UniProtKB/TrEMBL annotation:
<feature type="transmembrane region" description="Helical">
    <location>
        <begin position="76"/>
        <end position="94"/>
    </location>
</feature>
<feature type="transmembrane region" description="Helical">
    <location>
        <begin position="344"/>
        <end position="366"/>
    </location>
</feature>
<feature type="transmembrane region" description="Helical">
    <location>
        <begin position="445"/>
        <end position="464"/>
    </location>
</feature>
<dbReference type="InterPro" id="IPR005829">
    <property type="entry name" value="Sugar_transporter_CS"/>
</dbReference>
<keyword id="KW-1133">Transmembrane helix</keyword>
<feature type="transmembrane region" description="Helical">
    <location>
        <begin position="133"/>
        <end position="151"/>
    </location>
</feature>
<feature type="transmembrane region" description="Helical">
    <location>
        <begin position="163"/>
        <end position="185"/>
    </location>
</feature>
<feature type="transmembrane region" description="Helical">
    <location>
        <begin position="372"/>
        <end position="399"/>
    </location>
</feature>
<protein>
    <submittedName>
        <fullName>General substrate transporter</fullName>
    </submittedName>
</protein>
<dbReference type="InterPro" id="IPR036259">
    <property type="entry name" value="MFS_trans_sf"/>
</dbReference>
<feature type="transmembrane region" description="Helical">
    <location>
        <begin position="191"/>
        <end position="215"/>
    </location>
</feature>
<comment type="similarity">
    <text>Belongs to the major facilitator superfamily. Sugar transporter (TC 2.A.1.1) family.</text>
</comment>
<feature type="domain" description="Major facilitator superfamily (MFS) profile">
    <location>
        <begin position="27"/>
        <end position="468"/>
    </location>
</feature>
<dbReference type="InterPro" id="IPR005828">
    <property type="entry name" value="MFS_sugar_transport-like"/>
</dbReference>
<feature type="transmembrane region" description="Helical">
    <location>
        <begin position="283"/>
        <end position="305"/>
    </location>
</feature>
<dbReference type="GO" id="GO:0016020">
    <property type="term" value="C:membrane"/>
</dbReference>
<dbReference type="InterPro" id="IPR003663">
    <property type="entry name" value="Sugar/inositol_transpt"/>
</dbReference>
Length: 529
């Protein structure tokens, strides 16, 4: 097909569209409950280290009379998060393909609850490690699966908003952990740190109830398994009684059949790197790699430490403000991700983030200046807002909608494994770069993140396509035909033309029906007269 303006494609997203799909938005929020634990757990170790009774229970005494958690023990606790997440990435694809999306989420919630209880009643660092590993494996299954699940049920018009919600839930989890940590730090016994850990039971507990009694199975998974009637019932649960079931099922079946025509054998992880799937997998992995190399681990995880060593007054209070600003940025992205599109937010957002890193690094070269320190604090808060407004939220939309239907879960699992490995590397290097006894770069660490971010900007500019408002059938066609990234926006797909023809036929039938009704009425009137 030739390129031409997509006049008939939806170009904007208003409140009326969100309200029309409020039922789907509610289901998406339910599916995204477990990612709250992702954010909470990611911030929990840093908060535990600030609770005096935790240091008294597990720390070692220092010559000055204070206590600290040894470097080795801190590394053990940090490793529990990355190891559990990596194991979940390996398992999620197999589990969800075999037992389904719903049952995997129920299983994930159960495992997460067990791990949290182990943490809350730990008597040693290794027992705490075991509890963290188990709970991370549990919510990691849910975190890996949730964007895929949502991508399978969200309408094309609000798919970006639905997928962007997950990042908001992660930020909420980080903020809740900081708030609970601040509140429990004043308790003068072991319940100060036990309460911080056991508070995590709320999200998986709710998910267990919702998952068992309310959550329907993924229609896409049911279609793949040949359960057409169950898929129709699931679509009704998700979308309401007035939803056009046959149209949606036909689209899903057509997309899956197209993929089966290219892949005669059983789907494996290797299929994510074959044919057009290689391009899709690369786009997803680079999107989440961009998050790590842009410095999100430093901004979200090391701000309290950096503010402390930089001599900022009330660093914990400043961090609370920073998290609030980040959450506002994420909420703002919900209203533009399907209006502006993915490409402007990702490409232009990454460029602005990269330039901001350069500015932060430059200000950081000014030594022992209170104005410069205040400037870096402000710039890092602004960076957090820009990140959540653009790359932070949009990455999950891209991660959920880019992979092909039959390999979507496996592609996302590969991406999460790749992201976990890169995050582990960044988290191991960052303390060396910032610690006063090591490189002591301070804000100049932004220069380190600037270089790889610049490379990512170049890739995204030339290789990242616009997928706003496209059905999975259209995306399948465009990737298979190897349409260049910057032509995606204006490309008229065969699937879109076919849908227009169907709509025209339906309109014609309606007009003919109305015309026949009018003619009959006129004939009856003439007869009476």
């Amino acid at each position: 097909m030739n390129e031409m303006p997509l006049a008939s494609k939806p170009t904007g997203l208003g409140f009326s569209e969100l309200w029309r799909h409020k039922r789907i938005l509610g289901w998406c929020l339910m599916i995204f409950i477990l990612p709250i634990n992702f954010g909470y757990e990611a911030a929990s170790t840093g908060n535990l280290l600030a609770i005096p009774t935790f240091l008294l229970r597990f720390g070692t005494p220092l010559p000055n009379g204070l206590r600290e958690i040894s470097t080795y023990d801190q590394q053990v606790l940090n490793a529990a998060f990355t190891c559990g997440l990596f194991a979940a990435s390996l398992t999620a694809g197999f589990a969800s393909d075999i037992i389904g999306r719903k049952r995997t989420i129920v299983l994930a919630s159960t495992i997460c609850v067990a791990g949290i209880f182990i943490q809350g009643f730990s008597t040693s660092i290794m027992m705490l490690f075991g509890g963290k590993f188990v709970s991370t494996f549990g919510f990691g299954l849910g975190h890996t699966l949730a964007p895929v699940y949502v991508a399978e049920i969200a309408p094309d018009s609000i798919r970006g908003v639905c997928l962007a919600l997950v990042n908001g839930m992660i930020v909420i989890g980080q903020w809740l952990c900081a708030l609970v940590g601040y509140g429990t730090s004043h308790i003068q016994n072991d319940w100060a740190w036990r309460a911080l850990l056991l508070t995590q039971l709320a999200p998986p507990g709710l998910m267990l109830i919702f998952g068992i009694f309310l959550l329907p199975e993924s229609p896409s998974w049911l279609i793949i398994k040949g359960r057409r009637e169950q898929a129709a019932h699931s679509l009704l649960r998700f979308n309401g009684p007035n939803f056009n079931i046959e149209n949606q099922i036909t689209m899903l079946e057509t997309a899956i059949e197209k993929e089966k025509a290219e892949e005669k054998e059983n789907v494996s992880y290797l299929d994510c790197f074959k044919g057009s799937n290689l391009r899709r997998t690369t786009i997803v992995c680079v999107m989440f790699l961009a998050q790590q190399v842009s410095g999100v681990g430093f901004i979200t995880g090391y701000l309290p430490y950096y503010f402390t060593i930089a001599g900022v007054k009330n660093p914990i209070g400043i961090v609370q403000i920073s998290y609030a600003v980040q959450l506002l940025g994420n909420i703002g992205s919900w209203f533009i991700v399907d209006r502006v599109g993915r490409r402007p937010l990702v490409v232009h957002g990454m460029i602005v983030i990269t330039v901001t890193l350069l500015v932060i690094g430059g200000v950081g070269t000014i030594q022992n200046d209170k104005t410069a320190i205040r400037a870096t604090v402000a710039l890092m808060t602004i960076w957090g807002f820009l990140y959540q407004f653009t790359l932070g939220a949009t990455a999950y939309a891209v991660g959920g909608e880019t992979p092909a239907v039959r390999v979507r879960q496996k592609t996302y699992a590969i991406n999460l494994m790749f992201t976990t490995l890169s995050a582990t590397l960044v988290s191991q290097v960052t303390p060396i770069l910032i610690n006063p006894s090591s490189a002591n770069l301070g804000a100049k660490i932004a220069f380190v993140f600037f270089a790889p971010s610049l490379i990512i900007c170049i890739y995204l500019y030339f290789c990242f396509p616009e997928m706003k408002g496209r059905s999975y059938l259209e995306l399948e066609e465009m990737f298979q035909k190897r349409i260049p990234a910057r032509q995606f926006k204006n490309y008229i797909s065969d699937a879109h033309v076919d849908s227009l023809h169907i709509d025209e036929k339906e309109d014609q039938v309606a007009r003919n029906t109305d015309s026949s009704t009018i003619d009959s009425a006129e004939l009856i009137g003439e007869t009476i007269l």
